[in-house]
Amino acid sequence: MTEAQLINFFYNHFFSVGGLFTFMLGCCIGSFLNVVIWRLPLGMSLSVPGSHCPKCSTEIKLYDNIPIIGWLVLRGKCRACKTSISPRYLVIETITGIMWLCVMFAGRHYQLPLSQVLLALIASSILIAASLTDIETRTIPIQLIYFGIACAFILALAFPNSQLLSSQHSLFEIQANYSILDGFPPRLRSLFHCLFNVSIAYSFMYLCAKLGRKVFGSHTIECEPPVQVILRKDNCQAEGDDPLAWKEILSEKDEKIRFHTCDKQVVEVNRQGKSTKDGLDYKIDPEQKIFINKLTFPSAVIGGGDLSLITLCAAFIGIQGALVSLGFASLLGMIYLIISKKEAKMTQRAIPFAPFIAIFAWSWILLWPLYIEQIRYLVALLKS
Ligand SMILES: [Zn+2]
Question: What is the dihedral angle through the alpha carbons of 303, 308, 309, 310, rounded to the nearest 10 degrees?
Answer without folding.
Answer: 90
